Here is the input.
Amino acid sequence: MRNMGNMMKQAQKLQAKMLKLQEELADRTVEASAGGGMVKVVANGRQQVVGIAIEKEVVDPDDVDMLQDLVLAAVNDALAKSQEMVSTEMSKLTGGLGIPGLS
Here is the structure.
């Protein structure tokens, strides 16, 4: 029974650390770009896009499809980087526990 109590305490500590990390990651951002930096997207650790910058040189009314493709590529890259950042930080916290989805 004593081991079970210790395990519960450790689980509660881990949960508290994970919640704190999630809050911290919400404030951290990653940036991705497309078109040689003509379109830049910033995402946070909650996988939310928090900023988009588009250089005016890439805005061509006769080629809207290209701009859409660049924005889509940059958004997808930013979200992937955000997910990677979260995964890396969670792995540091939970590494070695053998918990599926957390290690």
